[in-house]
């Protein structure tokens, strides 16, 4: 089976590194902001303002990259998912987390495969079982969904063989399901992003105000000659 590094792509790796960097910067930023505000240290407040500005610019840049590179990202994600489906094996503990994540996606979005259930016809285990097994997370039957992962057996296959058309699974592919979910929740996503941006802008404004107040207090404390 493919190792986790082989399942990734340059774009997804870059996105992961950006998220790690932004997370670390956010933690450092919060610490510096609190320390600067409590002790009235102008340089720390200035650094806090700079970090917030960098994070805001990074978020805007990431949004633009995703928007303009969405077709490339979709193609890379399609390649990753199809490799995952082809090599899906419930007994492989090394890939368990990744496979469980995909099972969760199929269950929650009520979809099957990336384009459709036919993608699962390339799975090595299903091929060896003459297509008489199908992924439980794709199933439209409640008893199969209770299993949650792995493969379920088809009831009474004709001549011991079957195709994906014989499986009791959802017809919609996960690519269409994810796109539909994004469209349905676009308002919420944009609202959250806007809210985060507003909070960051308020933090930048407050840090500037504190710096000015500290500067004014320092000026009044200077003895006149």
From TrEMBL:
Gene3D superfamilies found in the cross-reference section: Tetraspanin
Transferase found in the keyword field: no
Q: Give the transmembrane ranges.
A: 15-38, 45-68, 188-211
User: Which protein family is it in?
Assistant: Belongs to the tetraspanin (TM4SF) family.
Q: Where in the cell is it found?
A: Membrane
Keywords attached to this Swiss-Prot or TrEMBL record, sorted alphabetically, are: Membrane, Transmembrane, Transmembrane helix
* Xref: PROSITE patterns: TM4_1 (PS00421)
Q: PANTHER family from the entry?
A: CD82 ANTIGEN (PTHR19282:SF44), TETRASPANIN (PTHR19282)
Q: Membrane topology type, per the record? A: Multi-pass membrane protein
Q: What is its main location?
A: membrane
An example of a Gene Ontology cellular component annotation for this protein is: plasma membrane
**What is this protein identified as?**
Tetraspanin
């Amino acid at each position: 089976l493919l190792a986790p590094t082989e399942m990734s792509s340059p774009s997804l790796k870059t996105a992961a590194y950006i998220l790690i960097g932004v997370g670390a910067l956010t933690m450092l930023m919060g610490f510096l902001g609190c320390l600067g505000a409590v002790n009235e240290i102008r340089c720390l407040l200035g650094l806090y303002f700079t970090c917030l500005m960098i994070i805001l610019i990074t978020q805007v840049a990431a949004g633009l990259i995703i928007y303009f590179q969405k077709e490339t990202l979709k193609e890379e994600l399609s390649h990753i998912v199809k490799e995952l489906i082809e090599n899906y094996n419930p007994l492989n503990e090394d890939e368990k987390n990744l496979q469980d994540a995909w099972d969760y996606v199929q269950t929650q979005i009520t979809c099957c495969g990336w384009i459709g259930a036919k993608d699962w016809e390339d799975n090595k285990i299903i091929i060896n079982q003459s297509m008489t097994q199908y992924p439980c997370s794709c199933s439209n039957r409640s008893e199969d969904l209770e299993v949650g992962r792995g493969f379920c057996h088809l009831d009474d296959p004709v001549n011991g063989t079957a195709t994906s058309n014989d499986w009791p699974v959802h017809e919609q592919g996960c690519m269409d399901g994810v796109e539909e979910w994004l469209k349905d929740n676009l308002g919420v996503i944009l609202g959250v992003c806007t809210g985060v941006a507003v909070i960051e802008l308020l933090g930048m404004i407050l840090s500037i105000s504190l710096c000015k107040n500290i500067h004014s207090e320092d000026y009044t404390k200077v003895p006149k000659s």
